[in-house]
């Protein structure tokens, strides 16, 4: 997976955790995706899914695509500032998905890189409306999604912010 390019020549990487299914660097069953800020309240990742993520033969499973969209849209809220610099996780910005709607327009082939983008449509602090899409290599939008994010209750946040979850930026190639 290569680092994406940006109009200003820079995409700041976002942190990953140790065991998250989508970004976890130590999750042996996970996707091991890397996320990058793509401007203010915008995030992206580039993905190539292999046969183990198959739905129908040669086609990515819709549940896996929904999972990747969910993560990408949720991370868009973390890209703040003019250039979309990463903002540290705080109680106000770490959010759960309350509602997710996905529309599948075209099959997503396995073994071919595609781009997933997420962006914030409306940010009201403790609630945000986000959107996302899966774009094939030829520019076709294959999957669209929208979601409502809600702030995580204060009493739930403590364990999520512990140092041992490994929330930090890891090198793209996975090397320490």
Give me the secondary-structure category. alpha+beta
The CATH superfamily is known as Hotdog Thioesterase
As residue ranges, the low-confidence spans are 1-9
What is the oligomer described by this structure?
Answer: single chain
Q: What are the secondary-structure elements, in order, as H or E?
A: EEHEEEEEEH
Strand residue content: 25-35%
Average of per-residue pLDDT values: 85
Number of helices: 2
CATH topology: Thiol Ester Dehydrase, Chain A
Radius of gyration, in angstroms, nearest whole number:
15 Å
Short overview:
The protein has 176 residues and is an alpha+beta fold. It has helices at residues 62-76, 154-160; strands at 36-37, 42-47, 79-80, 85-86, 95-104, 114-123, 127-135, 141-151.
What is this structure's SSE topology?
Layout: E1 36-37, E2 42-47, H1 62-76, E3 79-80, E4 85-86, E5 95-104, E6 114-123, E7 127-135, E8 141-151, H2 154-160
Antiparallel strand pairs: 1-2, 2-6, 3-4, 5-8, 6-7, 7-8
How does this model look, in words?
The chain has 176 residues and is of the alpha+beta class. It has a single domain, classed as Roll (Thiol Ester Dehydrase, Chain A). The chain contains 2 helices and 8 strands. The strands form 2 sheets. Strands 1-2-6-7-8-5 form a 6-stranded antiparallel β-sheet, with helices on one face. The protein has a two-stranded antiparallel sheet with strand order 3-4. The radius of gyration is 15 Å and the shape is globular. The chain starts with 35 loop residues before the first strand and ends in a 16-residue tail after the last helix. Mean pLDDT is 85; it is low at 1-9.
């Amino acid at each position: 997976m290569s680092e994406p390019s940006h109009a200003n020549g820079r995409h700041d990487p976002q942190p990953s955790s140790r065991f998250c299914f989508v970004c976890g660097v130590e999750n042996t069953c996970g996707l091991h995706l890397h996320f990058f800020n793509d401007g203010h309240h915008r995030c992206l990742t580039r993905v190539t899914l292999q046969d183990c993520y198959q739905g129908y033969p040669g086609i990515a499973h819709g549940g896996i695509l929904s999972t990747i969209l969910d993560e990408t849209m949720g991370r868009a809220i973390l890209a703040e500032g003019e250039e979309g610099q990463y903002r540290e996780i705080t109680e106000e910005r770490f959010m759960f998905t309350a509602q997710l709607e996905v529309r599948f327009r075209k099959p997503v082939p396995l073994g071919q890189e595609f781009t997933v983008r997420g962006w914030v449509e409306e940010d009201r602090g403790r609630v945000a409306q986000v959107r996302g899409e899966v774009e094939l290599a030829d520019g076709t939008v294959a999957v669209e999604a929208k979601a409502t994010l809600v702030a995580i209750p204060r009493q739930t946040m403590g364990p999520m912010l512990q140092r041992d979850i490994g929330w930090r930026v890891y090198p793209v190639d996975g090397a320490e």
